[in-house]
Design goal:
By secondary structure, the chain is mainly beta. The chain is built from one helix and twelve strands. It folds into two domains: about 30 residues, no CATH class; about 80 residues, no CATH class. A hairpin with a 2-residue loop joins strand 10 and strand 11.
Length: about 120
């Protein structure tokens, strides 16, 4: 049986929330502790980014780092993100920036030759 408030369904028959305008801080904390969060701003907790670790660490799914470079797309073919095998250095010519916070790998971000490759990350703190 669905639950309604003032004639508006807020919990449907599948136990899903809907039409909820706001939540209190206790509910927000409970949802965040359960790993359910959202971000209203780029780079905030809950935001996703394509990036690469600042170290040569091999990151598997769910591993974390607080040293992550955000990798913007190369605009108009004028910038590239790649690893120089001979010199052991990264090139990020279109403005890679070190991100604040702690990030969790959403897929494998393998390392190679002292650097790590671009992967999908979510900010967790």
């Amino acid at each position: 049986m669905a639950i309604q408030v003032n004639g508006t369904e807020v919990i449907n028959n599948s136990k899903g929330l809907q039409n909820v305008a706001s939540i209190d801080s206790t509910t927000a904390t409970t949802l965040n502790n359960a790993g359910i969060s959202a971000s209203a701003s780029a780079g905030g907790v809950g935001a996703y980014i394509t990036g690469r670790p600042a170290s040569g660490t091999n990151h598997l799914i769910s591993s974390t780092t607080s040293a992550l470079y955000g990798m913007p797309p190369a605009a108009g073919g004028s910038g590239w993100h790649y690893y120089h095998i001979g010199s052991g250095t990264w090139s990020a010519t279109s403005g890679a920036a070190l991100q604040s916070g702690t990030w969790k790998a959403m897929g494998k971000s393998p390392s190679g030759g002292g650097g790590a490759f671009i992967g999908l990350w979510i900010r967790i703190s």
